[in-house]
Specification:
Blueprint lengths: L4 E4 L9 H8 L5 H9 L4 E2 L2 E2 L11 E4 L5 H10 L5 H9 L1 E4 L3 E6 L31 E2 L8 E7 L2 H12 L4 E9 L6 E4 L2 E5 L10 E5 L15 E9 L3 E8 L6 H8 L8 H4 L24 E9 L6 E5 L4 H9 L17
Parallel strand pairs: 8-15
Antiparallel strand pairs: 1-4, 2-3, 2-4, 5-6, 6-8, 7-8, 9-14, 9-15, 10-13, 11-12, 13-14, 15-16
Length: 349
Amino acid sequence: MSGVHIREVDADGDDQRLDRWFRRVYPHVSQGRIEKMCRKGEIRVEGGRVKASTRLVEGQSVRIPPLPTPDEAAKQRAERVHVSDADARMIQDCVIYKDDDIIVLNKPAGLAVQGGTNTTRHVDGMLEALRYELEAKPKLVHRLDKDTSGILLLARNGQAAKGLTMAFRNKFTQKIYWALVAGHPDQMVGTIRFGLVKQAGHGPHGAGEKMVCIPPREIDETPGAKRATTDFVVIETVGKRATWLGLSPITGRTHQLRAHLAEIGIPITGDGKYGGSSQVNEGEGWGSQLGGVISKKMHLHARSIKFKHPRTGKELFFEADLPDHMQRTWDFFNWNLKWAPKDPFAIHE
């Protein structure tokens, strides 16, 4: 890494854009890095801040910040994870918002957020395709289950990552999930407070592990159990057969929504782990499948999120469209998305 130094604009640089002059003099430095250094005021001309598009004049002094050597830059490029063209296009098509600090994705159902045993295709492995003009790839700040679709936030720099992580940890975000469940809850609006403890799986490397619900009074005496709270509200129903729920996870435990809903007898449609992979709920009894033309995929979607921008403090709200299999189910039941308010809990306060 070089130190800070001053370079004088040569005759060939007269009336040339700063970024083009920089790329000619330092060909190993990317366009994205040049623009970032300009935004941060690290590159200066005659002591003043400039844009990448600023025109230079022969003889001007340009402040050059520390730069990687050509060998260091080549090593950094080689270390970047390769993303196939198809996956790059797919993950870029998932972007519903992007600025200098954050990216908001509508994650498809079936795509894992991170890798694991026998999971080699995941969002974390595609982040290189979401660098755009920046040197560093974005960072994950929260998770969704593989078969859950919807809103996923990414941080594009360290400050944003710290701010978003703190917001999730301190419950300064409001997340609303939509789910189709088999059956109908006893109440139109309610709260589930079962604790959760991990039960080891019986497959190789612990495959098949799941969360088990613990009655609130037994949480403190159960090793490894954690408190968990989920609010739910009924949006629409098909008699006693199926229900469109709005969900708000007050805590963020693994599989919390899935385990909680199964525990009160209304498993999420298509959730084989917690509701039975082949059991069809005909309106009486147990089972997460509805049968007929209803997809066997899991019907759980992170519909919206409200939070404050980690840099500006401005309140932001984003919604994610339903995945195709859930939209077909909604169409089959003639459910209109507009029937659900942005905050379905507000009308019950």
